[in-house]
């Protein structure tokens, strides 16, 4: 039996491909590998906040807000970081910005209420607690602000 040159070439090509495919990650997966995504300023800032590195988080959050001024979470975290570093006026503005973007932002309501307690403005804190009560029944933000208000009242000798 005589084998044609085309058949021999096809056999060689098939053998080469069979050897190459399993060893080539690009060809074996059927597509090019995805590029490695760099972590966003917002993601880096959230990690810094969770690690209680508030001074490190502030410039990252400001960059994130420059990139996306409508990010209520970034404004809220910025206010939180500012409050934790004693920048109370700046924190007030940041929380206000978060609530202008998302009037139902539970975290901003809680943290702004805590800021009001820090500045001895119990009526404003209680007003935010009422807003949280309307937004959620048993959410953590409501529970935390209730606890903060109760602690404040006890420390000040105010009966409920």
Explain this structure to me?
With 160 residues, this protein is an all-alpha fold. The chain folds into two domains: 1-36; 41-156, Tetratricopeptide repeat domain (Serine Threonine Protein Phosphatase 5, Tetratricopeptide repeat). Helices cover 72% and strands 0% of the residues. The protein has nine helices and no strands. The radius of gyration is 29 Å and the shape is elongated.
H and E order: HHHHHHHHH
Termini separation comes to: 103 Å
CATH top level of the largest domain? Mainly Alpha
Number of domains: 2
| Uncertain spans | 24-29
Structural class, from helix and strand content?
mainly alpha
CATH topology of the largest domain: Serine Threonine Protein Phosphatase 5, Tetratricopeptide repeat
Strand content: under 5%
Radius of gyration: 29 Å
Number of strands: 0
What is the overall pLDDT average? 87
CATH-assigned homologous superfamily of the largest domain: Tetratricopeptide repeat domain
Helix content: over 70%
Give the biggest sheet.
none
Can you tell me the overall shape?
elongated
How many H/I helical runs?
9
CATH architecture of the largest domain: Alpha Horseshoe
Give me a quick take on this structure:
The chain is mainly alpha-helical and 160 residues long. 72% of the residues lie in helices and 0% in strands.
Keywords:
single chain, 160 residues, mainly alpha, Serine Threonine Protein Phosphatase 5, Tetratricopeptide repeat, 2 domains, 9 helices, elongated
List the helices and strands and how they pair.
Elements lengths: L4 H16 L4 H5 L11 H10 L3 H14 L4 H13 L3 H14 L4 H13 L3 H14 L4 H17 L4
């Amino acid at each position: 039996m005589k084998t044609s040159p085309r058949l021999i070439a096809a056999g060689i090509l098939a053998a080469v491909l069979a050897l190459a495919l399993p060893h080539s990650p690009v060809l074996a997966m059927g597509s090019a590998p995805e590029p490695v995504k760099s972590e966003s300023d917002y993601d880096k800032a959230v990690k810094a906040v969770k690690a209680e590195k508030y001074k490190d988080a502030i410039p990252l959050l400001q960059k994130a807000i420059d990139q996306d001024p409508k990010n209520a979470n970034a404004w809220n975290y910025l206010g939180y970081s500012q409050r934790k570093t004693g920048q109370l006026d700046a924190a007030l503005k940041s929380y206000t910005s978060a609530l202008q973007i998302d009037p139902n932002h539970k975290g901003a309501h809680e943290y702004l209420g805590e800021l009001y307690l820090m500045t001895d403005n119990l009526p404003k804190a209680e007003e935010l607690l009422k807003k949280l009560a309307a937004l959620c029944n048993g959410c953590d933000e409501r529970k935390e602000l209730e606890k903060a208000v109760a602690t404040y009242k006890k420390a000040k000798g105010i009966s409920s």
